[in-house]
Amino acid sequence: MTESASSGPNKTVRIALFACLAVALVLLAFEWTARTKASSAYDKLQSGDLETVGTTPGRVHQLLNRKPDAPGKEKDGDLVESFTWQGFRKHVVYVAYAPVIGEGGKPSFTLDRITLNEAP
Fold first, then answer.
1. Residues 8, 44: Cα–Cα separation, whole Å
2. pLDDT at site 49
3. Do the beta carbons of residue 80 and residue 120 sit within 8 Å?
4. Residue 93 belongs to what domain range?
5. Contact assessment for residue 93 and residue 41, using Cβ atoms and an 8 Å cutoff
6. What is the 3-state secondary structure (H, E, C) of the chain?
7. pTM of the entire structure?
């Protein structure tokens, strides 16, 4: 058997395995990046520096340096916003705001609770 005849199938198998490995590494990096960004956003909002009382949706948007995925939805009287980072699966930070009476009697919302990958 000549070397070129025996290396043909082996070379094809090696190329296929390396291609699969490359795809797996790209997916792993994609997932890791999304998970890290969502976790970082959650930690930033949970940090002791952030005062819950008086923290408005605008302040949360400023802290995360982005807008929510869609306009907030009311759920059980609270305003709920979601911030999604897409990896192999979705990583979602949910932020719920409680209604309050603001300055001059204007209704507004203030930060109530934050969850990661679990709808409030």
1. 54
2. 61
3. yes
4. 3-116
5. yes
6. CCHHHHHHHHHHHHHHHHHHHHHHHHHHHHHHHHHHHHHHHHHHHHCCCCCCCCCCHHHHHHHHCCCCCCCCEEECCEEEEEEEEECCCEEEEEEEEEEEECHHHCEEEEEEEEEECCCC
7. 0.77
User: In terms of residues, how long is the chain?
Assistant: 120
Domain count, the chain: 1
Q: Which tokens belong to 82?
A: 């979601």
Token couple for 20: 């699969």
pLDDT for 88 equals: 84
User: What average pLDDT does the segment 63-69 reach?
Assistant: 92
Asked if residue 52 has pLDDT above 60, the reply is no
CA distance linking residue 111 with residue 89, whole number of Å: 27
Cβ atoms of 11 and 61 within 8 Å: the answer is no
